[in-house]
Amino acid sequence: MKVLVIGSGGREHALVWAAARSRDVQELFCAPGNGGISQMATCLPADVSRPSELADLAERCRADLTLVGPELPLVRGIVDEFARRSLPIVGPTAEAARLEGSKAFAKEFMARHGIPTARFTVCDSVQAAREAIASGRFDFPLVIKADGLAAGKGVLITWDRADAERAVDQIMVEKIFGSAGDRLVIEEYLSGRECTFLLFTDGETLAPMPAARDYKRAFDNDLGPNTGGMGAISAPGLMDEALAQEILDSIAWPTIRAAAREGFPYRGILYLGLMLTREGPRVLEYNARLGDPEAQVVLPRLETDLLEVCQAILEGELARLPLVWRDDAVVCVVVASGGYPGHYQVGFPINGLAKAERLPQVVIFHAGTRRTDDGRFLTSGGRVLGVTARGATVAEARERAYQAVSLILFERMHYRRDIGR
After folding, report:
1. What is the DSSP string of 4-45?
2. Nearest to 149 by CA among 105, 102, 96
3. Residues 20 and 28 sit within 8 Å (Cβ to Cβ)
4. Cα–Cα 20 to 30 A to 249, which of 86, 280, 305, 363?
5. Contact 104, 112 (CB under 8 A)
6. What are the pLDDT digits (tens) for 3-47?
7. How far apart are CA 60 and CA 4, in angstroms?
8. Pick from 392, 398, 388, 396: which is nearest to 421 by CA?
9. pLDDT for 337 beyond 90
10. What integer is the mean pLDDT of 71-95?
């Protein structure tokens, strides 16, 4: 089987790594890939925002299966384009991917179908947003979200009216998130514990993955700006069976059934970003694909062949494939460029990778690296590496991950020191 993975980050490296373990894989391609991925797959230049070009690429590679990492090609309709050409691909259609592509659409969808989430209002103008803030409908702190895709960073938490109005100006006037901020969602702040709940689905069956928890803030103790994710953990006991069943019954199944009723059956991977409140789980966001860095801690726990899972989704036979998961813990520490998620510099040599990779139970997923002709690695992005380790417990996996991080060095390197604490 020839497999094409779309994307260039740590999640895509984890997908390539998982696909490479399959007994059915013959050849691996990644578009566009990165330095680390180039050690496992043939990396091909590509613009992930152009579904037709990606379909052309899949045809040239004669790919038997395409896996999509990032959200942009899904929202732009890569699955629809592949379907028109009868090219096998796993993921939701553009219509279904609106659950991630538009926060306003997702919130209104949840409201229509009674799926538990925070109270909200959608605003199409600065004036409407200012009126919503002044109305007293929401207490502070208040959450303000850009409607469109913003690479996981389009959420601002505000603490008073002046702060909220400043956030509205940043999003809708200064366009700090670009066109993603043409509309915005204002919603109540939910207190509790954040958790990620991921599922495979063929539209008829739900196959939950182990629960994971990611760390969004840039600095220790959940301080600093939101990022795409500075680390993640997955381990048995992170979520008990009763809570998992409640999420399936009150959120996951209602989402899949409502999507089918509205005419866009959902197939692929569904990501539920949740807040576990005193009143029960509430949806913070939907994603239409694996999370990053959640993929880096969940996929290493998958014992079942990933390509078999994908084939079962394509054939509508997921119910007949029992998924087997390892019962160990996995911790991923993201090593980033100094200044991320704001301004940062790239092109710095990365030292110590080979030594870190030789540690037992450690795998390093590359996110923002490029490989030179002489085999060296340079930084090329905000998030550079996902240093991942497994262990019998979170504490053991954490110790191994940070031991590996301690061996890696590049200029202005930054990472959180409290992942899994």
Report:
1. EEEE-SHHHHHHHHHHHT-TT--EEEEEE--TTGGGTSEE--
2. 102
3. yes
4. 305
5. no
6. 999 999 999 999 999 999 999 999 999 999 999 999 999 999 999
7. 11
8. 398
9. yes
10. 98
